[in-house]
Amino acid sequence: QTPLFSGYGPQCPVDLARLPCFRPLLGALGGFWRALQRGREGRTMASRAFDPPPGRSVTAGIIIVGDEILKGHTQDTNTYFLCRTLRSLGVQVCRVSVVPDEVAAIAAEVTSFSSRFTHVLTAGGIGPTHDDVTFEAVAQAFGDELRPHPELEAAIRALGGKGWAKLSLVPSSARLHYGT
Fold first, then answer.
1. DSSP string computed for the chain
2. Domain MoaB/Mog, which positions (predicted)?
3. Deepest in the core among 26, 52, 91, 107, taking most CB within 10 A?
4. pLDDT, tens digit, for every residue of 65-103?
């Protein structure tokens, strides 16, 4: 099965999904590219596609995370890639926001966007370093907690990534998404 996010895009010139050991890791990361939405039972992370009410279009808000973007050290290529891809899928991108690597700022934007748009996508802030706090912020925005995910832990161990163990900590309601 192919994960939703293959790891191939403007900032990743190699299709990491072709490497079997990366598939569980990339599948889980795809969950953060996938929609975050307000669930029927309360504020929850989506685990499936969302159909808007009749007569309403599918909308998206994109949150780009990174001090390096705000300081002008790195050019944001994710916005162009995501807007172009979403538009080709019939999704109307309504807003793009760039936020610093701060849990409170990211969580506030996720909370705001999740109440206004069908889908919320994040890009950035999910690596192994101390300033990569997007997972924590998304959990906070949805009143969730971070927990190690068994499949991610296994994938990280298989890669020999001791320094990457932080990547196995995801919101407890997050699910791996393979395929469509």
1. --BS--S-BTTB-S-GGGSGGGHHHHHHHHHHHS---EETTEE---SS--PPPTT---EEEEEEE-HHHHTTSS---HHHHHHHHHHHTT-EEEEEEEE-S-HHHHHHHHHHHHHH-SEEEEES--SSSTT--HHHHHHHHTT--EEE-HHHHHHHHHHT-GGGGGGGEEETT----B--
2. 61-175
3. 26
4. 999 999 999 999 999 999 999 999 999 999 999 999 999
Q: CA Rg, the chain, in Å?
A: 16
- 36 is written with which tokens? 């975050």
Encode pLDDT of 96-146 as tens digits: 999 999 999 999 999 999 999 999 999 999 888 899 999 999 999 999 999
Residue 161 amino acid letter: G
- Yes or no: say if 25 and 15 are a contact pair by the CB < 8 Å rule: no
- pTM check: above 0.85: no
Alpha carbons 168 and 161: distance in angstroms, whole number? 11
Q: What one-letter code names the amino acid at 59?
A: T
